[in-house]
Write a sequence for this structure.
């Protein structure tokens, strides 16, 4: 196949190739991590939340319960330290966290069960009961195996860890 044949194919079917090229370029820019070239799209490859593509919006003002956020994981010693995580805000400052036999509740409403072990057979410790302090948030994925604030190894998310809010597209 010659260059002219490929060019002709591109011109005839540009409407198929152009969006793929744009999405690939935006994903590559996010992967490279250059903040000046950062993509406004998030591509979620995990099952933590049911959304695969989300539009990122600047984080302005306090977060609300139900907001989708992208934050930088900041738990020293964990293999995901510094990685962006995509979760939903479930608890806000002043909310009460309770744990009864690994069942975690926010303000008395059950939000999930803390597992005993990771998929790699490492032990997991449920979050400690208490009140969510100012400037911190309880975040959680919708999948039962999501690694989130249910565990002390992940913990609450500080406001300064939040990179952007997310608006699901697909």
């Amino acid at each position: 196949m010659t260059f002219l044949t490929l060019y002709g194919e591109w011109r005839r079917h540009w409407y198929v190739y152009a969006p793929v090229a744009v999405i690939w370029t935006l994903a590559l820019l996010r992967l490279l991590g250059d903040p000046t070239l950062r993509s406004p799209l998030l591509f979620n490859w995990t099952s933590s939340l049911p959304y695969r593509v989300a539009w990122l919006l600047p984080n302005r003002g306090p977060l609300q319960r139900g907001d989708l956020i992208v934050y930088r994981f900041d738990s020293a010693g964990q293999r995901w330290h510094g990685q962006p995580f995509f979760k939903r805000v479930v608890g806000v400052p002043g909310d009460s966290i309770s744990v009864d036999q690994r069942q975690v509740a926010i303000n008395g409403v059950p939000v999930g069960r803390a597992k005993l072990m990771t998929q790699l057979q490492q032990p997991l410790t449920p979050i400690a009961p208490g009140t969510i302090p100012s400037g911190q948030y309880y975040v959680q994925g919708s999948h039962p195996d999501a690694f989130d604030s249910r565990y002390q190894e992940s913990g609450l998310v500080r406001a300064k860890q939040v990179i952007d809010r997310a608006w699901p597209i697909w």
Q: What stands out?
A: The chain has two helices and eleven strands.
